[in-house]
Every structure is written in C-alpha cells, then in structure tokens.
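User: Second chain of the day. Same drill as before.
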Amino acid sequence: MKPKVDRRILKTRALLLNSLLKLLDTKPFRDITIKDLTNLADVAKPTFYRNYSSVQDILLNELDYRAEGYMDEISEVIDSCKYFNEITFILFSRFNDNGELFLAMYKAEMDNYIIDRYIQYTTQMMEIVNKNHDQAPDLARIFYFAGGTHCLFKHWLLAGRPRDIMEMSDILANDLYPLVKDKTITIK
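Assistant: Same format as last time:
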C-alpha cells in the first residue's frame, strides 16, 4: 500500500502547479521565477523548497504522479486483457486527459525530460505486461518507442487532436507490440 500524502502538501503542490500554468500563459518558462510562483500561489519560499528544487520539478513531479496512476491501472487490468490495444487505449486516453500538463511542458521546452520519462515509463509498463518473462528489456526498442511516442503524441496534441483516441492507440499498439513477450495478448 502506498503511503498517504498529507493533504496540505497536495494543496501546496496544486497551488504551485496552477500558478505555473497561469504564468505560462503570460510569459516564457525561462522567465518564470520561484518568486513569481510563490507570490501568485501565496506560498512561502521555504514551503516551495520543501516540495521542489526547481520550477521544472513542478511539472516533472506532476508527470510522475500521473504516470504512477497509469501504471497502477495497467497492473489492475493486465490479467483480463486479451488485446494489447486495450493497454495502449488506456495510455492514449491518459495522454489526452493530461493534455494541459503536456502543453505546459512543451511551452517549457522540456521535450528531453519527457522522452527520458517515457523511457522509464515504457520500461515499467513492459515489466508489467511481460510479468512471466525474465528476459532483459530490449533497450533499443524501448528508446525507439519512447521517442516515437513523444513525437506522435506531441504532433497530435499540437495539431488539435485531429484523430480519435482509438486510432492513435492502435498506432501505438502496433509499434509497441514487438516488446511484448507474452504472445497470449494479441493485436486487434
């Protein structure tokens, strides 16, 4: 069981994230200071530093928190999945639901951070999916998939989401499926 996070910490993090999102509408990320954030959020600087070490950490920690929810969801449904597309549908739905966070990260020019996180998340996801296989992950394919996923999602989001989620999740399923060791899960 995961430890509960104090509600005051969650409230502070939400205040800082919302303040950062507001500031990104008015100025470039590189010009946003911790003072700007703490003033807008009405949070003391020491409180900021108890939670984060930089402005970028606000976005990265939020991305990690939301990805953890995705991993939990995959862990819960993996045993009942017949088609790998079900997993990528959940993934692309999560991308869609978190579009505002990703747009903020794109404004902050954090693409490299996003790709690094995608590598970690893809590795974790494949460990969940391949639970019965002890083989080391194919890192070349994971790196390839993480970069491709980032570019695919970023283009889709910035273009105004021109294709539906199911179509996008099918694209991901076909590209990610070679990493699946347990072939009882198939592609639709």
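The radius of gyration is 18 Å.

User: Great, on to the next one.
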